[in-house]
């Protein structure tokens, strides 16, 4: 019965997508504004539904960290509303003409940006994702089929009703946003087989879950989220900046994919730099797994938790206050280490040398490559995309934070005056 | 033993791709020029190897049409060389920076175009495809693993040796182009599982073959090639142009994917237009499968082969001198028919009405949408891309003819001056 309901919702989304792909920017922006207003109007209801989720989660013994992800507060709802209005303010990607040219035979040829159709999003606890994805899909002319985590089900149902109410009020067409209300895992496989109705699936969650989705989906999948991130401090680095960047990348939010996992340090500055960063990290409670060289530098420091690194530390996503440290003899050795152990998510160099920066930016094969900034910036909102549907670590179709443009494709349009092929 | 050889070649290609992705435009263009020169220098050898393929094909009773696809002549080699030099003359897509912006915090952010890595191409008889794909991959910084059809194996071995010789001579790195010399079908499955080494597979061939590849490949696939193409003649069409376009789209080369399959005609001009196009088509030997309305108009014409259409004619790719004809009451009815029966390849309208043209171009969901031109133009060379790796009818990553740009992806590059996330 749930399976039939999912299929019905997928069909409705497909039908809605045919209307949505031609909807004017004005109507779409009105619908988005209306969503922000409806969230305001239904605040007490949303918060009380969220309370139900929180009560259940607490009763089931959820960790404080996970609980925090689940919380909706007045302040968080405000920031969700602001996000919606930001998406409304962004340029509409649909209909954009690009790569236009006139051929010698007079044909005018180019590409027109168009929506993909129906986006299937499968995600975990944070309820704001429901609004983020619904709004990005709407603005980019796509319908969406949302399947959130069971921990947030009351919040998600409440938010999706508010969104659909806003769509109804603003001629947006409520069927453009569909929430699957059953969170039974057994329903994932039937969902992933509905390639007739769903054009793209974006899974968000742990590595195991993403593998499950990728291996079973019959439609294209954009996946990512696993981030083994390196920051390489070059011999020419400004060491104050390097310390601040390494500190931010590791400590500001250690449980996410764009946090630092391994610090690579050029040997020429290791003796001076490593104690500085280790003392800062030490104060924040970071445990360091150091290679032989860096261990010899750090072992005698006070208030620094350092143990010798083992082979399994390289290429590990720690998702906690733990960092691996390795001293390298050159930029090339750093590049080689990143090539061997990076996951293609976010990698950074700290350097004052333009040539080193250029070499790093050009040669590192990852979704986001930084010079002199924290990898923690890898995020759709931080990148100015309004929000993100997910972060892709694959090379195909979209890479890095996926905003409006990444939810589109193109078609070739050709304007002739009677041309035939000779 | 063959399987090991394929794996070895795939590994070599992957290694070569790491060098190739950083190769300068000058070196790549020198390699391309050198390929054109080597083809010239080895003409007698290439032609004699091609002769072996032709002898075997004739002995096995290959149809004249298929034989023609296999032939290399002095003239065709000349046109292949010209194609290579055209690719050399095109702008290098690699390293292009786009979508650049400066964020309020001073981060400079944008996308850098980069190669995909290793392209696996699996194709059928025409030996020129070997050169086309090798050169497009080279220019776009990708290594390639080629697997051509068994009918052209001697020609392909000869051409790939010439290409590798040219790469050796020009510091291009011969391993960038690998030809699999066994055409045993049993080796397809192991090839399609090598996702460690192959980043994208492009299959070219019949529907059955493409399905086999798509369903078994562990890496991304861009597929297409099946074209159910409609030309809709609007009530406002210039009927001379419409006749010329419909004639060209059906007759100029009926065995290919971008040829016309169904002609849709507005009822207001059906009585005048249909006899004109039917007489032209009749002279060229086109068999017409007409719906009731068009049959009543055409049945009494001299020298016109017309039979009543059946349901199976709609949405059929004829690949021969056969066309289905249907009279529609409006542009909307034409759009609905195309939505229901098109394969998302190439669709055209002939009209003098700007609003109808715009509506058609905007609303038809296909890789290539034409106003007032023949669908036969859907082709990388015709579109000014130099050549094509294939024609995609999927929405994901690339759509329509795939040239240099479609063989690339991007990475985000972020230039900071010490920024950390607040």
| Quaternary structure type | homodimer
Largest interface: A-B, 66 and 66 residues
Provide the spatial order of strands within the biggest beta sheet of chain A. 10-9-11-8-7-12-13
| Poorly predicted runs of 5 or more residues of chain A | none
Specify the overall morphology of chain A. Answer: globular
Counted by DSSP, the helix tally of chain A is 14
CATH superfamily of the largest domain in chain A: Aldehyde Dehydrogenase, Chain A, domain 1
Average pLDDT of chain A works out at 95
Strand content of chain A: 15-25%
The CATH topology of the largest domain in chain A is what? Aldehyde Dehydrogenase, Chain A, domain 1
What is the terminal-to-terminal distance of chain A? 57 Å
